[in-house]
Amino acid sequence: MKKCSTCQKVSKQLEAAGYDINWIDIRQTPPQAELIRAAVDQVWPDVKKLFNSSGQAYRQSGLKDKIPDMSKEDIVTTLAEDGMLIKRPFLSDGDHVSVGSREQALAQWLDQ
């Protein structure tokens, strides 16, 4: 999301590392289920890392209390249906996925 300050910061870091950025507005086009599934598999069982827990959609849906009882597929379906629930930035090169702006999440992209 081009207006997201965190996304802009990460974009600058990735561009400095030689990446070309292709922006996709996840509000209108959430990532495909297979990419979300890859992200879920990477962080399982700590899937809360994938959710935009400060967002209005997250708070209104009561996900904080629901996530512990959700299956992997329930989580994938939920995130695929509403891009606003996904922590940004959601990065993918088609093979690898990472979510968020923390150093650990960006390491695979910046340590090459």
Automatic annotation (TrEMBL):
Top-level taxon: Bacteria
Q: Which Pfam families match?
A: ArsC (PF03960)
Stored InterPro entries: Arsenate_reductase-like, Thioredoxin-like_sf
Family of this protein = Belongs to the ArsC family.
Provide the protein name: Arsenate reductase family protein
